[in-house]
Amino acid sequence: MNYGYYPGCSLERNAAAYDVSTRAVAAHLGLGLDELEDWNCCGATEYIAINKLAAYALIGRNLALAQKQLHAPGNGRLAADGRAQLVAPCSACFLNLRKADRYLQDDETLRTATNEALAAGGLRYDPGTIFVRHLLDVMVNDVGFEEIKRRVTKPLTGLRVAPYYGCLLVRPRLGGELSNAEYPTELDQLMKALGAEVVDFPLKAHCCGGHMTQISAEVAYELLRRLLQNAADYKADVIVTLCPMCQLNLDAYQSRVNQHFGAGFNLPILYFTQMMGLAFGLDEKALGFGKEIVSAAAALAKIGEPPKAGAPARRRKDDKALPMPGAKP
Amino acid sequence: MTSPIHPQQTFLQDVIDATPGGDTLRTCLQCGTCGGSCPSGADMDATPRRLFAMIAAGLRDEVLQSNTPWYCVSCYYCMVRCPQEIHITDVMYSLKRMAIREGYTDHDAAPDFSQTFIGYVERYGRSFELGLATRFHLAHSPLRKVGIGTLALDMFARDRLALTPKRIKDMEGLHAILETAKAMARKAEATGGSKLL
Ligand code: SF4
Ligand code: SF4
Ligand code: SF4
Ligand code: SF4
């Protein structure tokens, strides 16, 4: 019995490294992932800004397909409460699917109308029948740290990792997110289980700007600069992500940020599944390394070296960070 | 100003209707936690707190002309910190829809971007990678001077940039679903069913 797998558009090309490393690691762990048949784009954060009902119908089609495929006898891996589980590696897809399921449960008018639209394509969705989960949640809570540790053959010793969560897997709180909305630790623990040295990363759940790179580049560059600066301050060798959009922003726009601020950041941005595959001793070619714009080769060569002394232990105050309530007039 | 859909209804009620769980908006304490938590606060012409006071005061024009919803990056910090659990981010989406529908947004980059993005979704069922190829196409329209330059080349070199999205098999079914939804939304607009808008 397998989980349903909703890769999302980004994983088809831009984030192919995330897709291949997810599939390789899942196969190694014996975690069955069945791709959702004929899934469509979830609309990201764009469709909902234009047409609400069409946006719910677009997301609803995926949930309806999942209901049909994963509740077919013998097909889906059911949660304890009988819901079939659909796994998304993209934080934006995860939130869209999860939120639509929740709001369709809560809002009868929207539910009836969405199903009226879905019926035009021969589908229907009963909210509450699909349990939408993020891939990290499945790795950490279903596979578990013990099993993950047991599989490690090449520990990531000496590699200083900044674990980056971004927004949409930790906020909003609709049930089933990570442990904390502002300072989650699951990815930290996972990286430690792989043998990496996890650096303090106070901005780890702050926003990278999402689609802002397209709309107002300077706003986005400043958000990205804060994150890169914070990771650099704590002498991270790499930033590890769990979302294709975060990876794209931090990786592809890093040189732009450098130009814009006259900075010299050189931080490779990798997916947590690539790190898992690496620590499990899987073939590196099958994990999508080399697709990152800021090359990870030099950083990865550090693995196995004895750690250098003198890394900063104390948090420094960053007055450019996300303002806390009451911090300023 | 009253609602163009429901002449009897306040602007506040329009926003509440448009937002799942929108009722909580009535309970805003004006505490300012949202604005203080917002990474885009400095670029917004009104903080979320101020915007909500303007909504309650019925300042429809001012609110729908505000850049605030368009600078919202959907980080949900405000939403998890709001003592009243107001669905702030969802209110921002509602305001974007209202501003577009009521003609407040001609030639802005953000609505253009959203339109371009969903254009692909409606044609193929899948999108380009959000954040790259769409920009690539915008960059080639005479309206945009921002070049994408080395960024696109870097992405092409690593096979991370597609020229067309993949097409799903049942495009016909998806098309029927979306067209039905849009027709229902148009009907709702004409008959005052603001919960679907
Ligand atoms: S969030 Fe992005 S990657 Fe995920 S399906 Fe939607 S558009 Fe595609
Ligand atoms: S950090 Fe950026 S891309 Fe990642 S979840 Fe937040 S907005 Fe989305
Ligand atoms: S945090 Fe909530 S209650 Fe406080 S001002 Fe913002 S919306 Fe109103
Ligand atoms: S969700 Fe939008 S309004 Fe709320 S804090 Fe984030 S950017 Fe600001």
Summarize the helices and strands and which ones pair or pack.
The complex is a heterodimer of chains A (329) and B (197).
Chain A lengths: L2 E3 L10 H14 L3 E3 L16 H19 L13 E5 L2 H16 L1 H12 L10 E5 H9 L1 H7 L8 E4 L22 H8 L3 E2 L13 H4 L1 H17 L4 E4 L2 H9 L1 H8 L7 E3 H8 L17 H4 L29
Parallel strand pairs in A: 1-2, 1-3, 3-4, 5-6, 5-7, 7-8
Helix pairs in contact in A: 1-12, 2-3, 2-4, 3-4, 5-6, 9-11
Chain B lengths: L10 H8 L14 H5 L10 H9 L3 H6 L2 H4 L5 H5 L6 H14 L7 H16 L8 H7 L9 H9 L13 H21 L6
Bound molecules: iron/sulfur cluster (4 copies).
The site of one iron/sulfur cluster has 16 residues of chain B, from helix 2, helix 6 and helix 7.
Structure commentary:
The complex is a heterodimer of chains A (329) and B (197). Chain A is α/β, with parallel strands linked by helices and 329 residues long. Chain A has helices spanning 16-29, 52-70, 91-106, 108-119, 135-143, 145-151, 186-193, 212-215, 217-233, 244-252, 254-261, 272-279, 297-300, and strands at 3-5, 33-35, 84-88, 130-134, 160-163, 197-198, 238-241, 269-271. In chain A, strands 2-1-3-4 form a 4-stranded parallel beta sheet. In chain A, strands 6-5-7-8 form a 4-stranded parallel beta sheet, sandwiched between helices. Chain B has a domain at 1-107: Fumarate Reductase Iron-sulfur Protein, Chain B, domain 2, CATH 1.10.1060.10. Chain B is globular. Chain B starts with 10 loop residues before the first helix and ends in a 6-residue tail after the last helix. The model of chain B is unreliable at 136-148 (pLDDT under 50). The chains are: A alpha/beta (329), B mainly alpha (197). The interface between A and B is large, with 82 and 80 residues. The complex binds iron/sulfur cluster (SF4) (4 copies). One iron/sulfur cluster binds at residues 8-10, 41-42, 44, 90, 92-93 of chain A. One iron/sulfur cluster (SF4) binds at residues 91-92, 166-168, 207-210, 243, 245-246 of chain A.
